[in-house]
Amino acid sequence: MVCLGNICRSPMAHVVLAERLVDAGLDDVVEVTSSGTGGWHVGDPMDRRAAATLTASGYDATRHRARQWDGDREGDHGDDRADLVLAMDRQNLADVGGPSDRVRLFRDFDPRDPGSEVPDPYYGGDSGFEEVLAMVERTAAALVSALERDRPWAGPAGRRREGPAS
């Protein structure tokens, strides 16, 4: 998951998707990470409004610490371990090298509005964070369904492939 500062959208998507994967029993085969294309928040916790929105909906937002996107670092676009990189908006998508088989918009999986951007709620009020959470929950559910259906970690005849898919 990639956004601008890694304090609002991508960590919200990270937390929700990780929990959905646990619920689906896929957390042992799918690893989720998040980062931001800008480095000014590195090491900071999630934006207090993003954390409050997640907490009010029953998620644990306490463990997140912002990190910066680095295409050469393990877990990011440049590493073959990352099977899928999901950007929150088109500028983030361009910042990580543009669309490819492995790099897409997060909302490409949104059943309601596929291919749309996740708006940045940072400069708005609380309702923007609630709107983002609704998008993230809906899209994460669809993404988990796609993973359950397509089983990208399985090789021929459904055998499990070694290594994580993220």
Taking all Cα atoms into account, the compactness measure Rg is: 15 Å
Question: What's the helical proportion of residues?
Answer: 25-40%
What's the average pLDDT?
Answer: 88
Domains counted in the coordinates: how many? 1
Number of helices: 4
Strand content: 5-15%
The main sheet orders its strands as 1-2
Q: Give the uncertain stretches in residue-range form.
A: 74-79, 156-166
Beta-strand segment tally: 4
The CATH architecture designation is 3-Layer(aba) Sandwich
The CATH fourth-level homologous superfamily:
Response regulator
Name the overall outline: globular
Helix-strand string = EHEHEHEH
CATH class category:
Alpha Beta
N→C terminal distance = 10 Å
Which labels suit this protein?
166 residues; mainly alpha; Rossmann fold; two-stranded parallel ribbon
Layout of strands and helices, then pairs:
Blueprint: E1 2-3, H1 9-23, E2 35-36, H2 48-56, E3 85-87, H3 90-95, E4 103-105, H4 126-150
Parallel strand pairs: 1-2, 3-4
Helix pairs in contact: 1-4, 2-4
Task: State the gist of this model.
With 166 residues, the protein is mainly alpha-helical. The protein has 4 helices and 4 strands, in the order βαβαβαβα. The chain has a two-stranded parallel ribbon with strand order 1-2. The protein has a two-stranded parallel sheet with strand order 3-4.
